Amino acid sequence: MKLKYILLSGLICLGAGLHAQVLPYKNSQLPIEDRVRDLIGRMTVEEKVGQLSKLLGWEMYEKDVAGVRVSEKFKEAVKTQHIGLLWATLRADPWTQKTLDNGLSPQEAAKATNAIQRYMVDSTRLGIPLLLSEEAPHGHMAIGATVFPTAIGQASTWNPKLIERMASVIAKETFAVGGKNGYGPVLDLAREPRWSRTEESYGEDPYLVGQMGKAMVKGFQGSVSGEEDRIIATLKHFVAYGVPEGGHNGGSVSVGERALLQSFLPPFEQAVKAGAGSVMTAYNSIDGIPCSSNPWLLDEVLRKQWDFQGFVVSDLLSISGLNGSHATAINAVDAAKQSIEAGLDVDLSGSGFGDNLLEAVKSGQVDMHYVDRAVARLLYQKFALGLFERPYVDEHLVAQKVATSEHTAMARQVAREAIVLLKNETNLLPLSKSLRRIVVLGPNADNIYNQLGDYTAPQPDEKIKTVLEGVRAAVSKDTDVDYIKGCAIRDTSATDIASAVKAAELADVAIVVLGGSSARDFKTSYQATGAANVESGKTSVSDMESGEGFDRATLDLLGDQLPLLQAIVATGKPVVLVTIMGRPLNLNWAAEYVPAIVNAWYPGQEGGLAIADVLFGDYNPAGRLPISIAKSVGQLPVYYNHVKPKHHDYIEFDAKPLFAFGYGLSYTAFAYDNLQVDVQEENDDFICRVQFEVKNTGGRDGEEVAQLYVVDEVSSVVTPVKQLRGFTRQLVKKGETHQFVFELTKEDLKLWGTDRKWKTEKGRFKVLVGSSSDDIRLERTFVLEKDYTL
């Protein structure tokens, strides 16, 4: 008996000693590189390949009266595919078939992600947590999350500091429910407004896009890897996705090497150097090479030139596109081989790599080195995020971190700063709050989903503030506010212009809210990629005319919107047009006949209140256009910084856009003066200091967005007619004068030379300072006496 006790005690001590020995990859005190190396050494080839698969996550949980738990489909995927990531687990929208009823509240979302991670830690051989990636371009795409303006509106703020703060809010809400990777920012240059995803972009200019993208990355990721309430960013879509021929989403692009290097790649470079943890490849090809199998893009530029340390993920099914739409791979195995060897690390879908990559490795077509390289890149991010030490979220903190009053206030502020005053004839705006009767008209006046944009989850009605609600909340109790819809965005079967006219005739002012919609509905069918199927010629149609898949042949207001507006103007009553839209639409008639126009893009959940703040003077608008508004599709492309020579006029009208890049009005006025340009040249670089004064000469405090453009007057290669190289948004109180200062270096004036090297050439440069790209108030030239290399 004594002997049995001694043996049993010895076994217990031995077991305790083994348990106390922490495996190196689980030892947080070791360098991440050592932990990665150790873990990869313990993985089978199946586990390695599986680690690179990112499956659609909303199928991986079950919800009923008993609670939230992992699904059998999830258990099977883990068992057979050894998956390493999930995408859009918490997403809800018509494509996913997740609604307010069967989707997850924030508290339920935290329970779901904890259940998923607990299964990974407790029920798999190595206990590797999943990286949960979530859509987050203008708020976490989940029920209950705060909904901000879409990216085109964010860019209209011309305020990167505000966007960084907004991004930190999105990160906090995503982190709180278990997401550790946010999809965004989208860094595509939107120079083709027929393209359905224009709303997701920061506009047409590489400098502005780069500043906004950098702000989003900083807001998402913070300054320290693994910091609480921070997530890693995924930059989209690498590269040149926003200029498809004919506006066809995902279509081919015609971009030369110099344009690619000088315009399309710089925003990504800025965001990568800000520390972005992930990059997503675009669906399109570049000069015949698909982005998802392009070693020059993914290895030479991204890794070697920019020193990118994160992982590259495919867009949904883009690996399969190599042996599908692109027809550059003979079969799915060949597609997997091309992608992983080019430097693509993670497969969004689970069907691009998976069995195909496994077969390629086992048959000797792909060297194991490429798989280990990709796995190492992904695991590094998981370790850096602290997932192995903190795989779970605190379910009790969700209510303190998601949709708080502070976050709601931030959504309203971003929406206010995004609003662009396009026209204000005879100072019709701001309106008096004590008018006797106001009528609010139009399809976007009281439609919650039409003001939220694409990539938005269902939200409770009471959470969204429409324009109608905003107007009613702003005016005095003695003002009557009527509402008539008048027409739909596209559907003409229920138009009632007569009732709208009758209401306008009784009102002191008519506020007409028109534009577009990216609101997905359950009647629309969707492709496997999530893009909508467009069925032209249908008699009963949704409002959706923008958003992924809804490309346009014209930019006209659809349905009976223009007839409605024309009928209201014909009453002779003062009219204010408010546009809520995802792309720059044709506003020619309105610009000529409507006295006041306010553009809000898709302003998010607080959009109605923000618009009312501007309409009634509680906020002085200072938003600026990040994209030119064309007079006709026949002008396209019409972006301001096209390469020389200058455009000449057409027979029908001039070559200028209706509203230019950088344009926006205020309720006050600003005068520019005293431009000084000082250049100090050194051996390796120079500093060109540009300073000037801006005085508020109007009767209200207001913010001015001062813009600095540069013209390279003579260069060895053709350069843009002008190029934004600095901007700042600053409050200038009435009667006050503020000094604005910018500094330029060789980096700001570089070009890709004929010798295929970066350089800043000596010669004359012109500095242009003003309130928009076509409202230049001051200019001066300076000369560089020598060339500079980079």
Automatic annotation (TrEMBL):
All residue ranges annotated as the Fibronectin type III-like domain in the record: 704-773
Pfam families: Fn3-like (PF14310), Glyco_hydro_3 (PF00933), Glyco_hydro_3_C (PF01915)
Record has Signal as a keyword: yes
Keywords per UniProt: Glycosidase, Hydrolase, Signal
Cross-referenced PROSITE patterns: GLYCOSYL_HYDROL_F3
InterPro entries (alphabetical): Cellulose_Degrad_GH3 (IPR051915), Fn3-like (IPR026891), GH (IPR017853), Glyco_hydro_3_AS (IPR019800), Glyco_hydro_3_C (IPR002772), Glyco_hydro_3_C_sf (IPR036881), Glyco_hydro_3_N (IPR001764), Glyco_hydro_3_N_sf (IPR036962)
GO MF terms, alphabetically ordered: hydrolase activity
Signal peptide: 1-20
Keyword Signal: yes
Gene3D superfamilies: Glycoside hydrolase family 3 C-terminal domain, Glycoside hydrolase, family 3, N-terminal domain, Immunoglobulins
Family: Belongs to the glycosyl hydrolase 3 family.
Protein name stated in the entry: Glycoside hydrolase family 3 C-terminal domain-containing protein
Species, as recorded: Sphingobacterium micropteri
